[in-house]
Amino acid sequence: MNTRMKNGPSHRRPKGFTLIELIIGSAIMLVVIVAALSVYSRSNQLSVDQQQYAEIQNDVRSAMFLLMRDTRMAGAGLPQQFLMYSLEAVDNEDQGVAVKPDRLTVMGNINSSLLLSIQAYGGYQTAAQASLDDDSFEKYAYADAYYPGNFVLILPNPAASCRAGEVRQVDHITHNADGTNEIIYFKGGLVSLNLPGNLLGTCNDATNFSGGQIMFVDVKQYWLDLTGKYPGLTAGVNGYLGIPGVFYQTENGVHNPIAQNIENFQVQFNGDFDGTGVLNGFRDWDTGANGGPQIWTVDTVSNIRQVKVWLLGRTANAFVSVSGKSTGGISVYRRPAMGNSPAAAVEDLHRRFLLQSMSNIRNMSLNLYNSGER
């Protein structure tokens, strides 16, 4: 055996990659990784943008649902002679910024139904009380323990000349098992609420309330806080957040935030304002029958039949997935005109979601088809 040939060095080529092959392979892998990261980054941008847009859609839709539900219920439980006090608005409230939103106030038995007839009212006692018709409490399914703490509106007899409503908080009620001797007691003093039409007050003669009525009262204001520093309000008090772009439902003085990232809120009204029997078309609050500076009175309000509302959501951050410049005139990246609120002059790449809704006011529109035309 030739041991030298067996144990000698091998003439086969060694296994492995050359430096050039490693560099080329690394370059190809780097290109693949960069491409994958680019696709992921783009996908993530689209996802973040769509998440923002979905959020403002949900906020605007839920806020509009609550707003229109309560608007349709304006005046519920009010006697016919007091329906004109169920609605009030502010047109273009100036908060010191470019957008001037509207404000809408509605009043009625919106959450809980109650309408009690007064026999006698002791309105000047420290703990006021009202005697009611027999079986008044028995008409409702509320337990006695339900009444304490609720706010009620005490209205005078519609035949009386006085037009003032007292808001009080219920202390307790008493009545016999057979439905007699029905009395509702109130805590001392009136509750200060901003009633539509300046209805809040008291009649000089307590007998004006004999034959009047008592109802649970819900005074709801829908308004938009643009600055987060609304005059007279303190963050953390009565539900006020102190955050810009929050849409509130203020019920009996408590601020309930129901939507965020809201940019504008506008409302208009339609009715037979000139007494011709024909609906005159939608107008902003405080505009007279001929478009003049006349301020609407409670008599004007009694002719309102329909409400139109615009609610505009705006993403908190500008869209990062928009490539290049958006098409000229496209409104989703620019604040659009709403009612008498003008459009923005420039685009800011924030996506908008605009929802418009129109509704009859149920308690003021019963004769809509008899008294006018759409």
Account of the 3D structure:
- Helices cover 18% and strands 25% of the residues.
- The chain has helices spanning 3-7, 19-72, 298-301, 368-371; strands at residues 87-90, 103-108, 116-122, 129-132, 151-155, 166-174, 183-186, 213-216, 218-225, 246-251, 254-259, 262-271, 304-314, 352-360.
- The longest helix is centred in the first third of the chain and has 54 residues, at 19-72.
- The N and C termini lie far apart (116 Å).
- By secondary structure, the chain is α+β, with helices and mostly antiparallel strands.
- The protein has two domains: 49-109 and 221-371, no CATH class; 130-216, no CATH class.
- Strand 10 and strand 11 (254-259) form a beta hairpin.
- Strands 3-4-7-6-5-8 form a six-stranded antiparallel β-barrel. The chain has a five-stranded antiparallel beta sheet with strand order 1-2-9-10-11.
- The protein has four helices and 14 strands.
Beta percentage is: 15-25%
Distance between the termini: 116 Å
- Tell me about the largest β-sheet: 6 strands, antiparallel, barrel
**Number of strand segments:** 14
Low-confidence segments, ≥5 residues, pLDDT <50? 367-374
Query: Helicity, in percent?
Result: 10-25%
Q: Which word captures the global form?
A: elongated
Give the oligomer, counting copies of the same chain as homo and different chains as hetero: single chain
Q: Give the ordered list of helices and strands.
A: HHEEEEEEEEEEEEHEEH
The radius of gyration over CA amounts to 33 Å
Strand pairing plus helix content: what structural class? alpha+beta
Q: Work out the count of structural domains.
A: 2
Strand order of the largest sheet: 3-4-7-6-5-8
Per DSSP, the total helix count is 4
Average pLDDT: 85
